[in-house]
Structures are given as C-alpha cells and as structure tokens.
Amino acid sequence: MFSEKENFVRVVRYNHPSHVCYPPPSCGISYAGSSPTDSRPSADCAYWRDEWGVGWQDVDGEIFPTLPAVASYQQVYELRVPDPHEPARMIAATEYVAGMDRERYFLAAGHSYFLYEKAINILGPEEFLVAMAEEPGTAHALLDKILDFEMGIAQGYLRFQPEHINLSDDYGHQDRLAMSPAMWREFIKPRLKRIIDFYRHELGADIVVSLHSCGHIMPILEDFIELGVDVLHPVQSTANNLTEVRRLTSGQLTLAGGIDGQIVLPFGTPEEVRAEVFTKLAMLWEDGGFLPLPEKMLGVGEDNERAMVEAIREWSHAQVER
Fold this sequence. Notes:
alpha/beta; TIM Barrel; 7-stranded parallel β-sheet; 3-stranded antiparallel β-sheet
C-alpha cells in the first residue's frame, strides 16, 4: 500500500494506485474574504454586503447572493476592487499551515467564486450575460478586474508552497452551459489559462489543479484538458452523461464526485447508496482517474453517509487491492 499522498497522486495520474482514494489527503486554506460569511457582521445577521458590495442573504443556513454590487454594466468602471495584498488576507491561512502535518496531507489553496461566479454576483446574472452579448468590452473589463484580484491572491498563496490548487467557478445549469461554448472560450478560458499557467510556472509542473464546476459542462470538457486541469469536480450525475464524460476524459482528466447527491444520497436507502457507489466506480475507475465523492452532502443522513464510505472501501478491497 502506498501512502495516502502518493496514492492520491497515482489516482490523479492514472498510475497504478494501490487503493481507491477516500477521502483525499488534502487540507485547504483560503484567504480572508473568500467566503461571503467573512463579511457577515454576526451569526444572526440575515442580510449583509461583502467587501465587493454584493448583498447576501442567509435562508435556513444556505447563503445566497441577492443584490448586485452595481446596478448596471455601465457602472462597472466605477467598481471598487478590494486589495488582494492587504496583510489580513493570509493571517488565518498562516496559522493553519503552521499547525498542519505536511508529511501526511497536501496543502490546497482555494479560489472560491473565482471568475464567472464573482462576475454574476457583482453585476447580477442577467446583466452580466447581457453585457457579454451587447457590451463585450465592459464584460472583459469586469473580468479583468476580478482576475487581477485573483492573481494577487495567487501571489499571496505562493509563500505557503501549496501542492494543490482548487479553482471554483460554476459554468453549468442542469441541462446546459450558462453561456454558449463560444462565449465561454472568449471570456473565461483565457483567464482560466492565465492563473493555471501562473501556478505551474511558480510551483512546478507537478502541482495538482482542481476545478469545481457544478452542472452541465460536457461541451467544454476538452477545453479543461487543454488548459491542464487535473481534477474536475463534482461531475453531476443528473446534469451530464457520465459514460460520455468518461470517454472524453479517459486517461487525461481525473473525475471527482459522481455519487448522486440530489436523489440517491439524501433520499435513497443504504442499499441504494451502496449500489450507486458500485455503479459509479465500475463506470469511472480506470486504474485511477476517479475520486468517488458525494456531489453534495446537503440533507444526507448519517446512515447513508456511512453506507457510502463502507461501499467505497468494499469496492476498493475487492477490485483494486489485489
């Protein structure tokens, strides 16, 4: 058996891992301001604005953007961009890294609401999509402001020498992309490439780059491969044809997630959860290349969570650890 860190890399590289990797041996850090709750005045405050000026609301523990930072795309050039280099950004991350066991765990640095999501929060989804179609220069200007901020955050992360980068930017709805593939390639892809290339140049070719994008992302899977994304999460079962996803990504992109978090995990029986795990591992495991994870855990009971973990270990023992 390889160590959990070495086994994780072997899974990602399709390189004869000794067992199915669960959970991934990764500990994450994030900058102050990465979560909208970082700006929340108190736990009982239901409405607030973050440092970009986006309004948020807490609805039964779920956080939603409800008010854009600017009223229309004509005001984008007046948007005040937070300082990515202010000293407080990395205080909590510094303390966390000082106490973690880096022999046992990878250090993962996160960029939540990376680019598209931040743009639709700042401007509102409809207004931003209209800007891309009618005022592309303004849409590019907003994305450049956001990317400059994220590149500043990336520079701040370098002091920790992370081995794993997590970019989070949802591009899909349940049955389609949020924009046309051509628009995604014009507005998003070059900027995604810039930050991935930056990390590979500064931290080396072996750094693992993960991208979280919910929803239907099949039309741009090969673009992810071209950009050098190593791991894609959560490959939603109800939004994608996973057999075709596996065909398109075979040997090139590791899939993470895939355990149905909309129907089976929250509402199924433990026996149905076990069957789901076995089905997805048989479909997506290729001497690695798959990290079985729940697509989401909202509403999942302890019995089903336990059934999922036990099923992953059972399948691994029967199929891989031989």
